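Researcher: Next sequence.
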Amino acid sequence: MISQEAKNNKYGMDPPQNFCIKGSHLLKWKSGGGTCAMCKKTGCRSRYYCTTCNEPYCLQCIPPPLFGIICGAGHEMQKAEVPYHICDHCSATIQSEAYRCVTCDFDICLNCYIQRED
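Model: Next structure:
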């Protein structure tokens, strides 16, 4: 049976599964911020969130996927012109093109995308 997330993209790929540190609950992919449940850093940018424990995880503790094909929610990413956006992996300012999920407002710069292929 194909998951709903795999149905979100033409590749039929499931997004990576990450679990919280308290109760091994499956983390949800969403944009947000707050105090990271793992490193306790405040004001962090986050993408993974435990809806059971009501806690975010920062991008340094649980990095976003670098597939370039799908985002953490399983949506298809497209190469696009997105100058002045911020890479959701390395936090660099994007100068021109990146891989982008419009639904999640998730961008991976070309440098991070190329590094993940090595």
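Model: The chain has a mean pLDDT of 83. The chain is about 10% helix and 25% strand.
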